[in-house]
Specification:
alpha+beta; DUF2024 domain-containing protein; NE1680-like fold; DUF2024; elongated; 2 helices
Length: 84
């Protein structure tokens, strides 16, 4: 499976910096931003906690088995990079 990688940066109101990739098998920046918001909520970060957010297409790549399984189950996969 070929996936799109969206480089995502979030600054929270309490000063935390979160950097992670959103991987999807299609869609666009708006969909990736929605997936990022869903994942942040699952991590306890609510919309009201976010001061700034950016989710931009970075590149595409071949997905590994775990990423494919995550996408099949929930539509996206997350790779935590910084502060997550």
């Amino acid at each position: 499976m070929h996936v799109k990688v969206f480089d995502t940066h979030v600054r929270t109101r309490d000063g935390r910096y979160l950097h992670f990739d959103v991987l999807t098998n299609g869609g666009d920046q708006a969909q990736a931003s929605r997936f990022a918001g869903e994942w942040l909520t699952s991590q306890g970060v609510q919309g009201a906690d976010i001061a700034a957010s950016e989710c931009l297409f970075c590149h595409s790549e071949i997905a590994n088995a775990q990423v494919e399984a995550n996408i099949a189950r929930q539509g996206y996969s997350i790779i935590p990079l910084q502060g997550c």
